Model the fold of this input.
Amino acid sequence: MSDIAGEEALVEPPLPQESAADPATARVESGAGTRATTFAVVITSYNYRDFVLEAVESALAQSRKALQVIVVDDGSTDGSDLLLRERYGADERVTLISGINGGQLSAFQRGVNAVHADVISFLDSDDCWEPGYLARLGALYDAREDIDFVFSDLQLFDQQDRMMSFHGSEVDLGYTAISTYVLTHWYGAPTSALSMRASWARQALDLPESFQRTWRLSADNCLVFGCSVLGAHKYYLPTGCVRYRIHGKNGWWSNQSARVEYINKMTSSALIRHYAARIGMGPECIEFSKLEFMTKPRPPWSETKRYARLVMMRRVSPWRKWERALNILRRGWRLRG
Done:
């Protein structure tokens, strides 16, 4: 297969300038509009009666108020639904949705269908947020209308006590479709640290009913992989505000084994291919790996190496592969975030 026509004519853009430290300041400088981004919080719950009220209260306690707090009880049998209705049935700030047990993907879909805000932040009912979480997200979404999907770090608590970080600092990850499609790389975080513009959540969750059975657990994969492959612009923003509870009932965390990892890899691969087929994306996309890398203003070194690996997988002559890989490594070293 020959090289992409005209690729040699591409002019590498100049190195980006450092962005403003305060996203709100950046927004003023960019001349963006003044309407504040609105948030909906979608909390899904199944048999977490001991935790769900703490999750809802943390959403209501945000310093930047959500337009909607939507709680989806997925057919709990432990009295969660009754508890929620006793506590929030007359609370206009909270929308309660209940129904038969269909799994996490089904609960996500029901919650998102009730949203009429700009951005959706997801929260598992056994987790909670510090009060400044939505304010941190809001400053970024207000400042950067081009950002579609934001994920954060997590503070593990209960049976563990440590931070889970994905990069050393905040990172504009640009577009991630090719890296996700070819390498099955996961540009995201567990549910409670995910947010995205509502239109992207709807696209990612627009899945056949048969997928609900496969994704009864770990349906955050649908959000993470779907938004990547379908073309969302991703950003990592460490906030220190997401508290991720580790306990014996965690569906994914408490069920890690070689067998489960294998099944997860296979189902994730099938999910990615489903999204790719929707937009006509195929293996030839690897030819555009360099172009996707160029959408990342200050890529972490790990991301640079990932894209160097991608261009080495192209079906071109060895010297052409090395030329492209070295170009990516050189640019990534100069820009490294």
